[in-house]
What does this fold into?
Amino acid sequence: MIKNKRFGLIAFLLGLLLAHSAHAAKTLQTEKSLYRNIVVIEEGNRRCMIFESRNDPPPYQSCMDLRNKDKLVFNYTKLILSGLLYNPKPKRILVIGLGGGTLPVALNKMVPEAIIESVEIDPAVVKLARKYFHYEDNNKVSTHIFDGRVYVKRALLKKQQYDWIILDAFNGDYIPEHLMTQEYFAELRGLLSDEGIITSNTFSDSRLYDHESVTYHKVFGDFYNLRRRSTGNRIVLAAKSDELVSMNRIKRHANQLRHKFSKFGVDPQWILKHFRKSKDWNEEARSLSDQYSPANLLK
Amino acid sequence: MLKTLILLLAFCAGFSIMTVELLGGRILAPYFGGSIYVWGSIITVFMLALSIGYLAGGKLSTQSPNTRKYGSLFIFSGLALFPLILFSESIMQWVFLQIEDPRFGSLTGAMLLFFIPTTLMGMIAPYSVRLLIESTENSGQTAGFLYFVSTIGSALGTIMTSFYFVLWFEINTILWVVFAVFMLAGGLATGYYYYDKK
It folds into this structure.
């Protein structure tokens, strides 16, 4: 009798556990790297790369829609495509910060003739992107295991030029502070072709917003700011040239890109409505430099 | 009075060593990144320099020790910060051009910038012990207390630099203050020497 009771209890608990895990995430792999623990999970129709952290929810790096692998899941990833609205035909693209490799994979399909270089500091991230997120090198896409600052300095020495630099190296938890200084932005600017642009995925809340905006403005002058208050994300779209491409031209490009983007679940009109040029930050804020870069303390 | 002075100066030295070490990460990052091996390079160089400094400071303390010589250790430590404050960028640019591997690049950079000042700073602790010791009986206790004071200084230097100084000041401002502290400390020790002789 007692035995049965106990069995019943165990069965009940087991049932609870199963019912729970049907909705919960399934962990495909956990990888300890030099920098952090990386987890690949599947929940529902999504497969995601997560950097383990005490924050809840932890910072999701990349997600892939398993029903439609081309579809871009995150809004910030879609907003980075503002770079294509600005210049639909970049020939050389530099992506700093790989995550699941979503962007290089999508860009390789969207702009097949473009040469894409991905830079990622963590070899474990590259390994998992290849294993779970269909990221792969080909004759256009190459991967480089480097610190984002060191790679840029070396590229400057080699006099490389890019039409589009995507800076996507900040997860919500920790900012590599040497990648958010006016000297670094000046180095990035030095790598841009005359028509070149940088799109940086960064933060829109906290004190850091003012400091970072002032720093970008100091190096690039006026820039487009694509801000999403609800998620704390924003994209800074800054150009090498003094004059920014006009909104009219960007609108024209948006119309041309509608068809190309639809396969990826992206509506160019939705991106378009995020473009802002106004300086909505405190212009008195101290700019960030190699001498003064407490980005994580200002967050 | 001598005892208080030496403990105070040893505290300042302990504080400053960690301030400089923590800023080291900041100074190297633009050229070699912020990876674990950059910190590895810095800590290696500091440990190596300190160990040699302890040896040299101990040796120096056997040759008619006095507070004037003690003071000059502080003056030289301060002066040795000059290349770090004034030329660190050109020095690292040079290393960056010579060495591709960021591990050995950061190790070389850290060596060039930090080895000499840290060795000099390392000489201060054993020399302080010598000046403080009155009898062999108490020598262990005296040395223990000196290490207690200077290591508390290091702990405070670490937390103040990483929590607050980097938020308030530029790196070079902090380094100039460290320089001023060493000069002042050197001045105090030298001043005591002449005051005591009178």
